[in-house]
Amino acid sequence: MYNARNTVIGLILLIGLVSFPFWYSTGKAASAPQPKLDTPTIQELEEKRCVEATPYMRASHMQLLNEWRTSVIREGNRIYVAENGERYNMSLQNTCMECHSNKTQFCDRCHKYVGVKPDCWTCHIESKENKL
Amino acid sequence: MRGKRMDRRTFLKVAGACVLGLGVMPVTDVFGGNDLPKILRNPNALVGKKWAMVVDMKKCWDNGEEGCVDCIRACHRTHNVPNIGNAKEEIKWIWTASYENAFPDQKNEYMEESLKGKPFIVLCNHCANPPCVRVCPTKATFKREDGIVIMDYHRCIGCRYCMAACPYGARSFNFKDPRPFIAEVNPKFPTREKGVVEKCNFCAERLAEGLLPACVEACKHGALVFGDLEDPESNVRKILRSNYIIQRKPQLGTKPNIYYIV
User: Fold this and answer.
1) Do B190 and A123 touch (CB under 8 A)?
2) Chain mean position to CA A12
3) Are the Cβ atoms of A87 and B40 closer than 8 angstroms?
4) What is d(CA A55, CA A62) in angstroms, rounded to the nearest whole number?
5) Does the pLDDT of residue B34 top 60, yes or no?
6) DSSP H helices in B79-192
7) How would DSSP label each residue in chain A?
8) Count of other CB atoms within 10 angstroms of residue A102
């Protein structure tokens, strides 16, 4: 093999560079996001509960919102009956954001962590805190 | 001994009944449950089969001050309609057009002097036979059961076929982000984004709460009347019975649901 020394050094350098992101971040797992729930509206609630139970909301809020938008616009039905019989106006902007007015702390934290960019906010108006 | 053994005929009968029972099971699962429906209509919502509007231009001109645009202002403020300030990129849900432009087929050389150049309140006609719905490739615009031709902005891809198809110019395209052009944002209603078409929705969101459209509510002189055409006792039907009424471009067969008294 010609220039064996240089080739081997080059190969080692190359492998090192390519694998850099893997060994550089070993043992440094990004901490799981912890969305904040302390908004004035939520603090005032007697029972701190979303329209459905927390595990369901955590896993399926996107399906719920998708169902809501279809129902509201295409069928004209705007009242959601939750599992416990409570009724809600199906509105991202007026119902969800009324409690979760801290969008940067609540929505964005997880969305950034998992790398999803929902484009809801190009039309739906986010709460005031973010406009400052 | 005979009673203890089941003969073939009895076995087949019992087996048949069991299979029938199994077949019925899914049906009982569906109808037997007493779960509440998860999504409901607001009990206060205004219900109609064919919503329509009568625009009494006589009341508008005779009672209103010159240049009264209360209805337009109320609509545009409620729905966050931007004021772009540029005729080519204008966004409008309800606006004024001269008689000649609003009713191009109903003008003649010697027409009534008083109508010449008069501003007419025009908006989406919520046609019974809407050409915009027929051409929309994504079904973003559709006709609801109550006759409202509405848009699902989530689905609009901005192809503007609907704008080409609408003979009334009732649709506007967002050439740029409309947010900076909204003087006072109404936090109750969403804005639109760059690249979607928009138009009057007959205040579907207000009807759902039992309120009349914003323009109707804003007109101090009752020039705009909203009601159900299918109900013979509705206020619109009463007006239609006793007045001479014109529609915009009726010869096109789109069956507009906005009627004008001149």
Assistant:
1) yes
2) 40
3) yes
4) 13
5) no
6) 99-102, 131-135, 161-165
7) -TTHHHHHHHHHHHHHHHTHHHHHTTT-PPPPP------HHHHH-SS---SS-HHHHHHHHHHHHHHHHHIIIII---EEE-TTS-EEE--IIIIIHHH---HHHHHHHHHHHHT----GGGTSPPPGGGG-
8) 21
Phi and psi for B2 in degrees, rounded to 5? -65, -40
Query: How many residues are given for chain B?
Result: 262
Residues A106 and A37 sit within 8 Å (Cβ to Cβ):
yes
* Closest CA relative to residue B164, chosen from B127, B134, B140, B201: B134
Arithmetic mean of pLDDT over chain B: 91
The Cα angle at residue B80 between residues B83 and B47, in degrees rounded to 5: 135
Among partner residues A80, A93, A122, which is closest to B39 by beta-carbon distance?
Answer: A80
Average pLDDT over residues A20-36: 86
Chain A residue with minimal CA distance to B43?
A: A79
Domains in chain B with CATH codes: 1-40 (no CATH), 51-261 (3.30.70.20)
Neighbours of B186 (CB within 10 A): 15
pTM beyond cutoff 0.90: no
> CB of A61 within 8 Å of any CB in chain B?
no
Q: For B42-95, how does the pLDDT look when each residue is reduced to its tens digit (9 = 90+)?
A: 899 999 999 999 999 999 998 877 889 999 999 999 999 999 999 999 999 999
Smallest CA-to-CA distance from A88 within A74, A104, A71 is with: A71
Question: Mean pLDDT in chain A?
Answer: 90
Query: Which residue type is seen at A53?
Result: A
Tell me the average pLDDT across A42-51. 88
Using CB atoms, pick whichever of A74, A119, A123 lies closest to residue B191: A123
Helices (H), B81-151: 99-102, 131-135
Question: Which of B240, B254, B229 has the alpha carbon at shortest distance from B56?
Answer: B240
Complex-level ipTM beyond the 0.85 threshold: no
Which strand (E) or helix (H) includes residue B217?
helix B214-218
The span from the CA of A51 to the CA of A57, in Å, is: 8
User: Rounded to the nearest 5°, which phi and psi values hold at B83?
Assistant: -110, 95
Closest CA of chain B from A48, distance in Å: 21
Phi, psi (rounded to 5 degrees) for B15 = -60, -40
DSSP A102-117: -HHHHHHHHHHHHT--
